[in-house]
Each structure stands twice: as structure tokens, then as C-alpha cells.
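ok trying again, last paste got cut off:
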Amino acid sequence: VFGGFVAMFLYLPKLLTAVHDLSKADAGARAAGFALLAVVGRPAGGWLSDRVGAERVLTWSFAGTAVLAFVLAVAYESMVPLTIACLTMAVALGTGTGAVFKLVAEWFPDRVGGVTGVVGAAGGLGGFFPPLVMGAVYEATDGYFIGFALLAVVAAGCLLILRALERGRAPVPAT
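nice, full thing came through this time. structure:
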């Protein structure tokens, strides 16, 4: 989820200037709004995870991201759906990021530091590669459909992995 946030934040100005002919300043301001919602969503995701469980919050985050990425794949050329989908995705990715920290503490209580380091590294890589893929896809196809469709597939794959891991774990005792 953090990688998805970083990737969208980095690539959003490029998309807005290339597809919607916005100025760099306007595109940057809109990307900053995306980042602000995701940043506010992070503590909200932690708070929600304390109340309803990190798995539930991550399920919502991955499912929402998959649906919203598909919406972006088919409607990124229209500003209103693009704006609604991106801002909603920012909240989904932010709350998911907050939930990850709760999940690490629950699933790996004796290794929080090491696992958080690995999760952070994975998030950094997750933010690095998608913009490269989006750029390559855009160069090859002159569009973003495939790039957003791939984001939807990755989010759906993360959801499936989460569900498989949940089934294989013993219930965490309530504290």
C-alpha cells in the first residue's frame, strides 16, 4: 500500500500534464492534495485497525485500490472520474498503510523492528518500479489503460495473498 501511494504520488503530475494539459504547478498542487489525504488516512487506518482489525482494514484498502485502479484504467481521460478515483484511492492507500503497522505488531510481535524494516524496503521498491512501468507502458501504447489495469491486478493479488495468509494463521488473542 505504501508503494502504491508513492507510485501514484510520483506519477500523478506526469499524467495530469500529459493527458489534461495542466501546468506543472497545478498538477503538483493536485498531487499534493492526493498526498495530504493519504497522510491523513495513515493514522486513521491505524485507529480503525485498533477497532475492527488490521486484516479488515487492509481488505478494504486492497479491494478499494483494485476497483479504483480499474476505474482509472477506463476513465483517466475524464477529469471528474480521475479526481474522484485518485482522491478516494489516496484514502484507501493511506488507511492501508496505517493498518500494515498494526498487522506487523500482531503477526510478528517478537520481530517488529526487523519486519518493519523489510516492509519499509518493500514499500520503497513498490514506489520505485510502478512509475517506471507506467512510463514504459505510456511510451509503448500512448495511454495509461494497461498501467492502471496492472495496478488493479497487483492490488487484487495483494488481497488474495492477505486472505491466504489469514487462513493459515492462528487467531490473535484479544488484548
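cool. The chain has a mean pLDDT of 91. The longest helix spans residues 112-141.
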